[in-house]
Amino acid sequence: MTDSTPTASQAFLDACAAAIGAQNVLTDAHDTAPYLADWRRRYQGAAFAVLCPANAQEVAAVVKLAHEHRVALVPQGGNTGLAGGATPDASGNQAVLSLRRLNRVREIDAHNNTITVEAGVILAEVQARARDAGRLFPLSLAAEGSCTIGGNLSTNAGGTGVLRYGNTRELCLGLEVVTPKGEIWDGLRGLRKDNTGYDLRDLFIGAEGTLGVITAAVMKLHPLPAARVTALAALGSAHAALDFLALAQRYAGPLLTGFELMSDFCMQLVGRHFPQLRYPFQEHHAQVVLLELSDNESEAHARALFERLMEEALEQGLVEDAVVAESLAQSQAFWNIREHIPLAQAQEGLNIKHDIGVPISRIGHFIEETDAEIARTVPGARMVTFGHLGDGNLHYNVQAPEGGDPKRFLAENEKTLNRIVYDSVDRHRGTISAEHGLGQLKIDENMHYKSDVELALMRAIKTALDPLNLMNPGKVLH
């Protein structure tokens, strides 16, 4: 809220209670607490209320009241973000706008291959409803059991299927949005071709609630694969992994739906903290790739293709060893290794995280150069490098030296190591946020690396749509 008095706050709350029901206006500290900290517990905010509308019309009513009373709103979905984008500031003058009650699947159109869902629908529910209709919704994240479609859209989430299906932006055909003035824009058209002016949809995707509130979306569905083949391949370097990726794309084309890179230290961490997820090879290797083929024909066809791919990869010396999942359970075990890397990091202690992206061809050089500079700066620092190699997105994280104090490591080195990593990203024409968004975590870095022209264009859009700066202020832009 911008310089509002407690009286003004109460007037706003009374009006909200009339619009959405008093039971959906939370002010008790016990009730609001779960909405005030981010998933990583890095940010702890304060809010004078948490507002829980049930549909787009109620969202519009709340936003209109916020505009009238000059109250700043922080839209929030599943609260699983990693950049503090859905956490209020510490002033206590903001209200959290929770979209969790907007949880209906409005329509599944099998012929149009679309599903229309409200912003608060859990990602796993969208996947399940698509499967029930004989279709695939390919967005897949570690937090899919609790993150929401609205949050996925607001951060343009990536996940493990980007190589084949694209980011959340590519999976969205239309939006329903409440503007900062409380108007509803109905863009739920489900069209794959529409050249009738500016693409408003893309403005709101990835904007982290700073331009308006996404209340529903039309999302693309795909044919349900007849079979999946999952494998782990061991390689000697990131450069070899890139050559292997090129070979896999040549052999499999669009059937290649997963290609995840994991450094040896990632694998060691998982084995140390989750011994049931054992290292799958007899010897340690510099890099391991998790790859998956999705075939619409048959498992036999997918396996035959995979065998030809691996024969050539071994013959060329790209792959040093490989193991293919022989069952769904083993396939899930392979994916569990990948998905447990962040959990193993957390068990190991505090670390410095980077969600970066560089052109795919530069990944090997980026890792070599940046690893070396970090080693010179903090001898013994341990690199936890993993991510979606097929789209250039790396989770490039730095763990404290063995036996060191993680809190002291962060306090003494975070700023310096961030600058090393982000300067290297910039030299390689990359991005400091590939899929987690900017939120409040990277807002200063964004100001540093964006050009004046780019920032001016972004500010012009923000000012045009939200001149009072009431939509998630303090996120994305200063």
From TrEMBL:
Keywords: FAD, Flavoprotein, Oxidoreductase. Coiled coil: none annotated. Its EC number is 1.-.-.-. Residues 43-224 form the FAD-binding PCMH-type domain. One of its GO terms (molecular function) is oxidoreductase activity. Pfam families: FAD-oxidase_C (PF02913), FAD_binding_4 (PF01565). Belongs to the FAD-binding oxidoreductase/transferase type 4 family. This is FAD-linked oxidoreductase. It comes from Paraburkholderia hiiakae.
